[in-house]
Write a structure and sequence with these properties.
By secondary structure, this protein is α/β, with parallel strands linked by helices. It has eleven helices and twelve strands.
């Protein structure tokens, strides 16, 4: 599945380079219109991130994002600043197909496990954004500003045991760079547990990247900067993925 993505910061569409807020590149697109454009080009699912909320939950931009999604006819997943079971319920009631849990899923596993048991594993995407270290793939949290002390595969196993099958994994060094995805990361995830639906995020810059991710077995491809910068269209990405 091709999943167009839009990040929101200071109530504007933005892309960061390797997750660094001081690299913000803002785009002059209307959020609601851009989402509708992606839908009209054939996207069956969309991805939204409240970067302001991810950095500081007291500055959530949820009202703006919810208003922008009201007219959508396709499902969307949303993350950024989700810190409580009430936050999860609010998004599901607002129409989100799934909520994306990042930092909280790393730092407060047992609490998130309770959310999953309450709302159902199918309502969750676990987002694990990682750096390659001497210890292997290690997650980063809180807008990628802090490092975790638990490995990627430990967390994948923990949530898979709870019934979660949707995981969004980003190699931070690739995010927003347009230098190609971290194919090794997704190959390792597929080998580790072929039953999972992995969404690849970060670095996709060409249709060849999409083709190779499909060949690896990746179930979803998140596209952000490549679409915003016009490297290719949603229609072209969909055709490439379906024909790979």
């Amino acid at each position: 599945m091709i999943i167009p993505a839009l990040d929101v910061l200071q109530q504007q569409i933005v892309r960061l380079y390797q997750g660094k807020y001081d690299t913000a590149q803002f785009y002059p697109f209307d959020l609601a219109q851009r989402l509708m454009d992606y839908q009209q080009q054939g996207a069956q699912k969309l991805h939204l991130v409240d970067l302001e909320g991810a950095r500081d939950p007291d500055k959530k931009q949820w009202r703006q994002i919810q208003e922008a999604t009201q007219s959508l006819g396709v499902g969307y997943q949303v993350g950024g600043g989700i810190r409580s079971v009430e936050d999860v319920a609010q998004w599901l009631e607002a129409g989100a197909a799934q909520v994306v849990i990042g930092s909280k899923a790393v730092n407060d596993k047992n609490e998130v496990a309770q959310w999953i048991q309450r709302h159902g594993a199918q309502q969750f995407v676990i987002a694990l954004d990682v750096n390659k270290t001497e210890q292997g793939w290690m997650p980063a949290t809180h807008g990628w500003l802090e490092s975790a002390d638990v490995s990627l595969f430990e967390l994948v196993d923990f949530y898979a045991d709870l019934g979660v099958i949707d995981f969004l994994c980003t190699d931070i060094s690739k995010d927003g760079t347009m230098t190609g995805p971290s194919f090794a990361l997704y190959e390792e995830l597929q080998v580790h547990n072929p039953q999972l639906r992995i969404q690849a995020s970060g670095g996709v810059s060409s249709l060849d990247d999409i083709r190779r991710l499909k060949e690896i077995g990746t179930q979803g491809v998140i596209l952000g900067k490549s679409l915003l910068d016009g490297a290719f269209t949603v229609e072209e990405a969909l055709a490439c993925y379906q024909n790979a």
